[in-house]
Amino acid sequence: GTVLDEPKTYSVDHDATIVEEDGTEVRIAPLDVQYQNASIWGRLITNFAGPMNNFILGILVFVLAVFIQGGVQNLETNQVRVIPDGAVAKAGLKNNERILQIGDQKVTDWESLSQAVDLETKDFDSTETLSLVVQGASGKRTLSVKPQKVQGRYTLGVTPSIESLGVLGNIQAGIRIAWERTFAILNELKNLILQPDLNKLGGPVAIYQMSNTAAQQGFLSSLLLMGMLSMNLGILNLIPIPALDGGKILINIIEAIRRKPLKQETETYITLAGVAIMVILMIAVTWNDIMRAFF
């Protein structure tokens, strides 16, 4: 402290607290409990804790989603579930009925269904309708469906049918879904690095649009989006940019190799450079989202 403009140093008990005038108690921060004086492994664990919690949350959300929907999606069949107020729901399709044909395209599973929709709506006019051959308890029948356009693609308003796997199977399925989504994000990140394109990135505006679409499709869609965003955030935070946790982990690794810490001033400058990069990227992505959404 300063006494009569003279700096004075006093010894303070390690576990002492400062009691402010309003009665607020604040514990002091001895050097041995400060982040910069922790061991390399201690700092690595601290920096990885944030992304790790994102991954844990994502896994829990996907497991919860599997239980809520009663199992996992069966992509090997043409049996479908109908989204309320979707295109085929309005045309009269019921849950667990089969779509046998879309236009001229035969349908045997979910992949062929998705391809058939894309092919039949390639040069589609919003006033046109699609002819669907479906099979239910009463036999085969033909429906005339007007697809809905969602984010530039025409959709029928269906999701894959659900297969129940039991409690343990559902937990394993939720973990597997989280694993698959994580590697899908990593693959997209690799493609972005090899072929940089601002349109492949989305900021707050894009997230709002996705959230709005998911909310319209129901609670389960919102839950799945939340799981995806959590896994996405965990991976993003591990990118070795100084302002992110990944950048801090990289600095920790460099310090471990050098066997001595970086100067505090050097680390501060590196972090500020990372913050500048992130701010510029955030502005560019947000502006690009606004241009795509409104112009």
Give a structural overview:
This protein is α+β, with helices and mostly antiparallel strands and 295 residues long. It has three domains: 31 residues, no CATH class; 170 residues, no CATH class; 92 residues, Pdz3 Domain. 52% of the residues lie in helices and 17% in strands. It has eight helices and 13 strands. A four-stranded antiparallel β-sheet has the order 8-7-9-10. A three-stranded antiparallel β-sheet has the order 5-13-6. A hairpin with a 2-residue loop joins strand 7 and strand 8. Helix 1 crosses helix 4. The radius of gyration is 27 Å and the shape is elongated. The chain starts with a strand and ends with a helix. The model has no long low-confidence stretch (mean pLDDT 86).
* Residues in β-strands, percent: 15-25%
For the secondary structure, the number of strands is 13
User: Which structural class do you get from the secondary structure elements?
Assistant: alpha+beta
Main sheet? 4 strands, antiparallel
Name the strands of the widest sheet in spatial order: 8-7-9-10
Count of structural domains: 3
